[in-house]
């Protein structure tokens, strides 16, 4: 009797694994469909062009890296309680201004923000689906926040 019960449990477990695999495949396929929809959007194509143009320009990448390093250094000093030197701040601001005057760098930074906004929107919908146990409606986002397309985290 114990052997038969064990066989039934193993068979049920195998069936549950197969069912989870089927469901996962459906989820993955729908995720791929979403990705294809994103790729086909004109906004996405512009984001990619901006990123690709930036990545092909060594000067823009170097400017960006320099500003990030100087910003990180200032942040580290501030977090550790060290005084910030006015010359360091001025140097950072000068480099940041030069970066923002570089069209490729500015477009890249804007593309990053747009990409983040899209990711946030998708994640808010997925999170709300788990929270509610159903596909959310626009009204589900209207209580206490800006909605899924805002990107502010509310």
Per DSSP E runs of 2 or more residues, the count of β-strands stands at 0
SSE pattern:
HHHHH
Helix-strand makeup class: mainly alpha
Number of helices: 5
- Tell me the radius of gyration: 24 Å
C-alpha end-to-end distance? 56 Å
User: Which word captures the global form?
Assistant: elongated
- Which consecutive residue ranges, at least 5 long each, have pLDDT under 50? none
Largest sheet: none
Helix content: over 70%
Strand percent estimate: under 5%
- Round the mean pLDDT to the nearest integer and report it: 86
Description:
This protein is an all-alpha fold. The chain contains five helices and no strands. The protein is elongated and about 75 Å long. It starts with a helix and ends in a 22-residue tail after the last helix.
Quick summary of this structure?
The chain is mainly alpha-helical and 154 residues long.
């Amino acid at each position: 009797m114990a052997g038969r019960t064990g066989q039934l449990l193993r068979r049920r477990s195998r069936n549950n694994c197969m069912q989870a695999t089927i469901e996962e495949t459906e989820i993955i396929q729908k995720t791929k469909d979403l990705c294809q929809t994103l790729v086909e959007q004109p906004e996405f194509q512009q984001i990619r062009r901006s990123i690709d143009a930036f990545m092909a320009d060594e000067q823009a990448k170097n400017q960006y890296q320099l500003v990030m390093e100087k910003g990180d250094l200032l942040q580290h000093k501030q977090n550790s309680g060290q005084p910030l030197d006015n010359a360091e701040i001025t140097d950072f601001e000068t480099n940041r201004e030069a970066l923002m005057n570089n069209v490729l760098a500015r477009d890249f930074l804007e593309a990053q923000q747009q990409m983040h906004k899209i990711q946030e929107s998708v994640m808010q919908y997925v999170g709300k689906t788990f929270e509610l146990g159903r596909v959310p409606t626009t009204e589900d986002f209207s209580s206490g926040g800006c909605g899924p397309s805002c990107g502010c985290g509310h």
